[in-house]
Amino acid sequence: MSLRDYGLAEHDLEKAVRIDPDVEYMLGDDQAYFCHPVRFPAVEFELIDTTALCVVIDAIRKRLGFPPMLEDGGDTEGWYRFYLGLNGYTESHVDASIMAVVENSDSEDNDECYEIALSDDEQRVIYDLLDRQCRLHYGKSCADLLEEARRAMEADT
Predict the structure, then answer these.
(1) Contact (Cβ atoms closer than 8 angstroms) between residue 81 and residue 113
(2) Inter-residue contact 127 to 92 (CB < 8 Å)
(3) 97 by DSSP, 3-state: which?
(4) Cβ neighbours of residue 138 under 8 Å, at least 6 residues apart?
(5) How confident is the model at residue 2 (pLDDT cuts 50, 70, 90)?
(6) Any residues with CB less than 8 A from the CB of 136 and at least 6 apart, and which?
């Protein structure tokens, strides 16, 4: 299921998907395996735990039998940690999902990781959002960050 399936339209994504400027992005690399391994640059961001993302993870967890973290009008801060990455492999350059980790909970799924799938259209919209946010917070475009990750990856080999 994608964000749209949880009621988030494309115009909602700008409020929902926001880089946490207080957490430094991480450069790295990853691999895909088909006929042979393909290594590619990657950049990971921690996202702000917006109400919209928290509601989606609550819905996923509730479907699996876990109680939601948010109560009506409750505070979102501190229950989940969200991550999203750029990559030099896919056409959109955005990971296929937003990762969420449950934290600070006495729930049985504390420290468990969940995924919010992103459709191809959502990935394209999110790339543009991330690009604007990267330019604002870091003074670099997504392409600049991926190039920086590529150089670091090549220096590492």
Answers:
(1) no
(2) yes
(3) strand
(4) 25, 145
(5) confident
(6) none
Give the separation between CA 98 and CA 18, rounded to whole angstroms: 12
Residues 6 or more apart whose Cβ sits within 8 Å of residue 95:
84, 85, 86, 87, 118, 123
Q: How many CB atoms lie within 10 A of CB 36?
A: 6
Say which DSSP state 104 is in.
S
Q: How far apart are CA 22 and CA 32, in angstroms?
A: 30
Task: Quote the tokens at residue 123.
Answer: 């990935």
Q: What is the pLDDT of residues 50-102, one digit of tens each?
A: 989 999 999 999 999 998 887 655 556 678 999 999 999 889 999 999 999 99
Six-digit token string for 153: 């990856």
Specify whether the CB–CB gap between 61 and 109 falls below 8 A.
yes
Tell me how far CA of residue 134 lies from CA of 15, 130, 139, 144, in angstroms: 15, 6, 6, 10
